Amino acid sequence: SQTIHQWPATLVQPVGSPLSLECTVEGTSNPNLYWYRQAAGRGLQLLFYSVGIGQISSEVPQNLSASRPQDRQFILSSKKLLLSDSGFYLCAWRDSGGVYNEQFFGPGTRLTVL
Amino acid sequence: DQQVKQNSPSLSVQEGRISILNCDYTNSMFDYFLWYKKYPAEGPTFLISISSIKDKNEDGRFTVFLNKSAKHLSLHIVPSQPGDSAVYFCAARPTNFGNEKLTFGTGTRLTIIP
Question: How far is A27 from chain B (nearest CA, A)?
Fold first, then answer.
C-alpha cells in the first residue's frame, strides 16, 4: 500500500531564517506531487505541483520554492521566511495513471514563524 | 476569486440525524468533484467523489449530489455520528489531461451533538 510521509511535524522558525520541508511517498511510482498551505481559518491553497522529476509548476508567487530531486521526494524551501509564511503545510500525491482519482494527503507540518 | 465556495463555515447536527453540507462552484470547466474530511492537525482524508456524468454517488452513509445546471453539490451524511465531527472540504477540478489543479473550498466545520 502507498504511504506519504512529511517532516518535521512542527517547526518554529524566526523571520528571515531558511526553510526546508520534506515529503516522501512510498509504494507507488511516478506520482503527481503537490504542496498546499492552509492558513488559519482559510481553505487549502495549492502552492506547487510536480508531474515528474525536476518538473515544478508554481501556482502562487511567493518567497517559497519547490524541488523534486527524486521520483518520490518533494521538498518545499525558502531562503528567508516571512511572518505570513506561518501555516499548516500539506503534501499530497496522486496516481498519474488516471484522470478520475483522488489526491492523498500527508499528515502535514505546522510552521510558526516568529 | 473563490471558484469553489462553502458558504456555511459551521454546522451543528444532532447525532442520528442527517447532515447536509453544501458547495457551490463558478468554473464551468470543473467536472470532477471531491469531498475531504479533516481533523485538527492532520491531513485531509478522501471521502467520496463524483464526476459530471453522474448526479449522485453513494458510499455507505455518505452520498454526494451534483446539480450541474446550478453548479451546486452537496454531501449528505446519514445517520450522523460523533466521529463525523470534523472540517469538510469540497474540491473540484477539470479532467482534461495535464490539468492538475484541484481547487478547494474554505471548509465547513461539522459538529455532531450527542
Answer: 18
